[in-house]
Amino acid sequence: MISSKVRTDIELFTRLFCSQKYMEILKDTSAYFNHTYTDKTFT
């Protein structure tokens, strides 16, 4: 059984890590879409 303090720390760490990963993926994805569709769509 994990103590509630440790579990909370793990949840916080997981949320932080996932949000950082999510932001990286978001940046990569938006950069990809910008690179792919800029000339066709957004001009």
Describe the structure.
- This protein has 43 residues and is an all-alpha fold.
- It has 1 helix and no strands.
- It has one helix at 4-41.
- It is rod-shaped.
Question: Which key phrases capture this entry?
Answer:
single chain; 43 residues; mainly alpha; 1 helix; 0% strand; rod-shaped
Rg, please? 18 Å
Biggest sheet features: none
Gap from first CA to last CA: 57 Å
Class computed from helices, strands and strand pairing = mainly alpha
Quickly count the helices: 1
Mean pLDDT: 80
Number of extended strands:
0
Low-confidence stretches: none
Q: Work out the helicity level.
A: over 70%
How does the SSE layout of this entry go?
Layout (H helix, E strand, L loop, with lengths): L3 H38 L2
Explain briefly what this protein structure is.
The protein has one helix at 4-41. It has 43 residues and is mostly helical.
